[in-house]
């Protein structure tokens, strides 16, 4: 029987570079993908429904919670975010690896439910860099940036709970470090 795939949790504060890192990781491998989450937040210009997120109303999301459709879900800055469980399990069963790019509360829930998942915290070189990246990304208002930076302080205090901490200073170094973590994981199986 084919080995099951590995579930990776990749989290860290908003603006640290998780999305950028994930794009680079999946570009190089056919058997690695990022789970598409559901959310109630409004789509941004670069979002496509069903590709970056499944965009849901509050009622739709709450029905999915009731129907037990999520591996985990959390409220982040006033919006729901959650990982649809069926798609993740299907890929793992086919022997593919899956990345959950999720915030810290959800990550902690997955660590409890799936102790075999490999958790990686992406940290910024410093708080000022995080602020500059969020500001330069230009996708949030000043108010939303302030909220995200506030959330970041709490998120950074949880990094010790993860299997690995990777600092995203130079992007290619951070990507390479995660590829090495994944390679070592494959060798262990
Ligand atoms: P997240 O998904 O964690 O919210 P993003 O991937 O959207 O973060 O990255 C936030 C911003 O920082 C983007 O504009 C991205 O291009 C930039 N960025 C990501 N990694 C780096 C890096 N290592 N050096 C400089 N800028 C980066
Ligand atoms: P954004 O609004 O910037 O796309 O995402 C905000 C935060 O929600 C990010 O930290 C992102 O990783 C996280 N997130 C995205 N999808 C999920 C999910 O399914 N579950 C949880 N818990 N967090 C998510």
Structure, explained:
The protein is of the alpha/beta class. The chain has a single domain, classed as Rossmann fold (3-Layer(aba) Sandwich). It has helices at 18-27, 58-66, 85-93, 104-113, 127-137, 142-156, 171-188, and strands at residues 7-11, 32-34, 37-39, 53-55, 70-76, 79-84, 97-101, 118-123, 164-167. Helix 1 crosses helix 7. The two termini are 13 Å apart. The chain binds adenosine-5'-diphosphate and guanosine-5'-monophosphate.
- Give the ligands present: adenosine-5'-diphosphate, guanosine-5'-monophosphate
Helix content: 40-55%
Question: What is the overall pLDDT average?
Answer: 94
Q: Which spans have pLDDT < 50 for at least 5 consecutive residues? A: none
Structural class of the secondary elements? alpha/beta
Number of strand elements: 9
Summarize the structure.
With 189 residues, the protein is of the alpha/beta class. The chain is built from seven helices and nine strands, in the order βαβββαββαβαβααβα. Strands 2-7-1-8-9 form a five-stranded parallel beta sheet, with helices on both faces.
């Amino acid at each position: 029987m084919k080995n099951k795939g590995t579930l990776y949790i990749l989290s860290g504060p908003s603006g640290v570079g998780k999305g950028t890192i994930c794009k680079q990781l999946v570009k190089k491998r056919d058997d690695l993908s990022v789970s598409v989450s559901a959310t109630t937040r409004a789509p941004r210009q670069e979002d496509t429904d069903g590709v970056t997120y499944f965009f849901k109303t509050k009622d739709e999301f709450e029905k999915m919670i009731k129907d037990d459709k999520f591996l985990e879900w959390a409220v982040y800055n006033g919006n729901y975010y959650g990982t649809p469980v069926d798609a993740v399990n299907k890929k793992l069963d086919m022997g593919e690896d899956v990345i959950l790019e999720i915030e810290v509360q959800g990550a902690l829930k997955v660590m409890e439910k799936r102790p075999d998942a490999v958790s990686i915290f992406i940290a910024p070189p410093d708080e000022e860099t995080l602020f500059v990246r969020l500001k330069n990304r230009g996708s949030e208002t000043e108010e939303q940036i302030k909220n995200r930076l506030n959330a970041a302080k709490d998120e950074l205090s949880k990094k010790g709970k993860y299997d690995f901490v990777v600092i995203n200073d130079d992007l290619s170094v951070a990507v390479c470090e995660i590829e090495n973590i994944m390679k070592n994981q494959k060798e262990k199986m």
